[in-house]
Structures are given as C-alpha cells and as structure tokens.
Specification:
heterodimer; A: globular; B: 170 residues; mainly alpha; 8 helices; 2 strands; rod-shaped
C-alpha cells in the first residue's frame, strides 16, 4: 500500500474501513501523512513532537470515522483534527511555560523547541532560520492561515472548511500574516546584520527615523 | 492624488491577488496597475519573496515505519463498543451512567428488603406465629379426649420449647 492509489477516493476507503476492512486505512495514512506532519511541524517547529502529534491525529481520525459525514471532504476532516490537536499542544506548552516562569523575550516562542533538534540542524541556512523565526512570532491563527495557504496551497474555501472561519476573516489573517512576516524578517535582518546602517540592537532604535534596508537584500 | 488612491486600493488587494483569489476584473485591474506603478510592483515583489521563503521551507518526512506503527497502534486497541441505551451514549456522560447505576442499586435494595428495613423480620416472625397457631389448633383437635391440663402442658411446651414439659407445669 503506497497511498498513491489514485483510483480509490477517500470516501470509498472510509466506507471499506466502516465495513471492517481496517487495513485499508493505511492507504489514507500514506496519502496524508506527509502533509499532516509538515503542517504540524510548521506550526510547532519540533520534529519529534510533530511526529508524535501526527500519529495522534491518525489514531483520532480512525476513532472518529463513525462520526464522519460522507458529504464533508476527508481532507478538511483530517486537517481540522490536526489543527485542533496542534492548538491544544500549543496551549499546553504555554501553560507549562507560564508555570515554569521562564518567560522568554518573546512570549510566543517559549513553547517552541530550542534549536538543535535533529531536523533543524540540517536547515541552518540564514534565510530559512529567519523565515522560521518570523513564523514563530506570528499569532497562531495567522500562522495556521498562512501555512495552509502558502505552504500547503489550500484555497480560501478549503481553509474555511478546515477552520470554520469566514472568507473575509481568512483574507485578513493571511494579509496580516504576510505583513507581520515581512516586518519580522526586516527586524531580524537589522538585528542579524548591523553593517547595513543599523545598530546591532535593532529593537532599541524603532523610534528613531532610520534608513531602512530593502527586504529584497535580505532574501 | 487619484494615483495614490489607486495604490492604496491595489495594496489592499495585493495579498488576494498573489493568492489568486480575486475576481477576474479585479485581477486585470491590479495587473495593469502593477505594470505601471514602480512602488506597488516593488511591494508586490517583497510579498512574493516572503511567501517564496515560506513555500520553500524544506519538507520533513515521517519515519519509515510510521504507517505500520500507526496501524499497529490502531489494531491493538480493540474496537470499543460503547454502552448506549435509549440512544444516550453514556461513555460520553459518565455522571449520567453513575447516577443510573446508583438508582438501579437503590431499586434492587428496595426489592430485596421491601420498602423499609425490618419488614423481612416482621414478616418471618408472623409466618412462624401462624404455623404455631396451626399446630396448636391441630393439637387441640387431636386431643379432644385428653384433659384440659394435658392440653395446656403440651401447648406451653410448644410455645416455650426451651422449658421441659415438666417445668411447663404449674
């Protein structure tokens, strides 16, 4: 079972699983595992946790198959579960960081893993690191919207199916996410590269009028 | 001035334009504006580079045995048949299930013990009293030719078995 069987629609596999052919579920796992783990990983940036959460997603989806309505799309169904589990994980991590009282400079980033996980050591190039940092600093809803749209190439309608948000809300979230990402990247650039007419502490000069370096130089 | 307004409108549409979510007419208008406005096209270029940065983040893979492990995990868990009576799924509402079990125990207790404790004891003593009455009546019938004293003795012996027949005499 490779998950690439294009002839078997998702709903047909669900029907077979309901009839007792549980092994058929493996086709769905193969079909969706890569997209789900990447969605979760780009939300939390921790390979091990992403792997574990992806496993939880597939177990939950299997358990929820009796409640799945055939008129829904399976993709929206599985991504909704993935989104909910990821948000629960983030909330839990935030609570833990609150109790540990070890608040970072940017509260949003405490629940992310520290650099040096198996995967992140591979992606050490500066541009990727800056994009990753920029994504981490986005609010969760903006991050969900931009990852679904830009990384996974979902349409606004599909995002709406997964999240339950209205189209105007999705438009706003994506637009703000792009704008914030641009700003984040810009401030990181000033921080990381003080040789471009800025001081090293980019955050301390925000009230001063300075010559801004175009972002195109950074990327 | 009108050019500034156009730029503002276009920038509001830029994100949707980039996402391919504009109506065809709006799409053409934005395209035309971008071909003539340097500032807006630069802004669009920056947006493109930001999203390209996100899009080109390297994809990760699950471990090679992921599917098999998940399937094993699923199949090891036997399908749970949840208790459902009258269409109520009690596994979702455990408090309701506990209440139901408590009520069942209560009913069972009443059925065994009668509605008040002690009823069983009263009933059994009444039953034994009735059997004693029957025995006494039978004895009286059978011993019509006996003297009244003998009858009294035997009756007393029956009522107070712990006393000997001789002791029951007075």
């Amino acid at each position: 079972m490779t998950g690439q069987e294009p002839d078997i629609p998702d709903d047909e596999i669900i029907r077979l699983v309901r009839e007792g052919y549980s092994r058929r579920y493996e086709i769905l796992i193969e079909r969706y595992r890569k997209r789900i783990i990447n969605f979760i990983h780009k939300m939390i940036f921790d390979y091990d946790e992403a792997q574990s959460l992806t496993q939880d997603v597939f177990v939950k989806v299997y358990e929820a198959i009796p409640h799945y309505k055939m008129q829904d799309t399976f993709q929206a169904f599985i991504f909704t579960i993935a989104k909910n589990l990821t948000l629960n994980y983030i909330k839990k991590q935030k609570r833990l960081s609150w109790f540990s009282r070890a608040l970072p400079d940017h509260p949003e980033e405490k629940y992310f893993s520290t650099p040096g996980t198996q995967y992140e050591e591979i992606e050490r190039n500066q541009q990727e690191s800056m994009i990753t940092e920029g994504l981490k600093r986005l609010k969760e809803n903006q991050r969900i919207a931009i990852i679904l749209k830009v990384y996974l190439d979902f349409s606004y309608n599909k995002i709406s199916e997964v999240t339950g948000w209205s189209i105007p809300k999705i438009e706003t979230l994506i637009s703000r996410a792009k704008s914030n990402l641009k700003e984040n990247l810009h401030s990181q650039h000033r921080f990381l590269d003080p040789g471009k007419g800025e001081t090293k502490t980019g955050y301390t000069i925000k009230n001063k009028k300075v010559q801004e370096t175009p972002l195109t130089d950074v990327l | 001035m009108s050019n500034t307004m156009d730029c503002r409108r276009v920038r509001r549409f830029l994100s949707r334009y980039q996402d391919g979510e504009l109506e065809p007419g709006q799409n053409a208008a934005v395209e035309q504006h971008l071909s003539t406005c340097t500032n807006c096209s630069q802004e669009f270029e920056i947006l493109l580079q930001v999203t390209t940065g996100v899009k080109t983040l390297p994809a990760i893979e699950t471990d090679p045995h992921f599917s098999a492990r998940v399937m094993q995990d699923i199949l090891d868990k036997k399908p749970t048949r949840h208790l459902s009576i009258l269409g109520i799924e009690y596994w979702k509402r455990p408090s309701l299930l506990y209440s139901l079990v408590f009520i069942l125990f209560l009913i069972l207790g009443f059925m065994i013990n009668g509605f008040f404790p002690g009823t069983v004891e009263k009933k059994s003593s009444r039953d034994s009293l009735n059997s004693q009455d029957v025995q006494i009546a039978q004895l009286l019938n059978e011993s019509q030719d006996l003297t009244l004293l003998n009858v009294q003795e035997q009756t007393l012996a029956l009522v107070y078995p712990e006393m000997g027949t001789d002791e029951a005499q007075w």
